Amino acid sequence: MVNRFKVLDGWRGVSISFVLAGHLLPLGPKSWQMNAAVAAAGMALFFILSGFLITNMLLKDQNIGSFLIRRFMRIIPLAWLCLLITLISNSSKFETFLPHFLFYANWEPMALTHETSHYWSLCVEMQFYILIAILVSVFKSRAFMLLPILCVAVTANRYLNGVEIAINTYYRIDEILAGCVLALLFNYGDSVKRYISLFNPVYMLPLLLLSAHPAGGVINYLRPYIAMLLIGSTLFKTEMVWWNKWLTNALLVYLASISYALYVIHGGLRFTWLGEGESLLKYAKRPILFATTFLLAHLSTFYYEKYWIDLGKKVTSKSAKHHPD
């Protein structure tokens, strides 16, 4: 029997590996544009997982206050700490970073800098949390039925405007919403799950890379759904096939556990001395950059972030005791 949520951890490990490779390693000549494609594929996987887990969580417990506290305690402490370090080290004006601290830096006019360019995805995440919190607060359980409609609507809007890929929430959130759809299928789509499990990830993964590459053309508009089917094909598999066994290996599970810290920390470090220089010097320093990133990510995850996550759980647990359903 497959441990389904360990499979999801495996995909999270794959997603951060793709992002790190796309940002930090030479993946062929620049003309091949593989770095951007691999990083975008990694982000698509990450967003699918996020949408799936958030929706699955809210289907079980629709306490929006507890949900927001826990998610904010998960994202904000490290994000703000790294922003503060960047703010001080660059002697930047606080106003420049206000859109980052409030997570709207990916809206026009863009406020992202080199050092904070990766924060666009945190903006998408946080804006999604607010959106789904509002929907569930207003529409209760019916809100979940709106998610597939919103997903298709966002993709249709991308297509009508010729936007194959972008970092604005209104053009990128269909990747998270496709993950929400996957969660609905996981809980209510028994008749569909069997067919999704027939997709072979060995073929779906290259298709995802194509859908994240400029040469993919119109296939780019299907990226959220290809990523959803790729993860779903392993999530809904009831027997232990080799790729599910590989996805549950200890290395990927560990990478998944520190993936958020890896993402936030690597994005800033790659614009420091560790990540800069001419090509030969830059890549000669890559082992040091990777080692520093992994060390800081490990310490952040298991010491700094853990404190805030545990605090969020403690606060919401007390709230639940004082306000029982």
TrEMBL record:
Positions of the Acyltransferase domain: 8-270
Keyword Iron-sulfur carried by entry: no
One Pfam family named in its UniProt record: Acyl_transf_3
Keywords linked to the UniProt accession: Acyltransferase, Membrane, Transferase, Transmembrane, Transmembrane helix
One Gene Ontology molecular-function label: acyltransferase activity, transferring groups other than amino-acyl groups
TM segment ranges: 37-59, 71-89, 117-136, 202-226, 246-266, 287-304
GO CC annotations on file: membrane
GO terms (BP aspect): polysaccharide biosynthetic process
Keyword Transmembrane applies: yes
InterPro entries linked to this entry: Acyl_transf_3_dom (IPR002656), Acyltransferase_3 (IPR050879)
PANTHER family (alphabetical): ACETYLTRANSFERASE (PTHR23028), ACYL_TRANSF_3 DOMAIN-CONTAINING PROTEIN (PTHR23028:SF53)
Entry protein name: Acyltransferase family protein
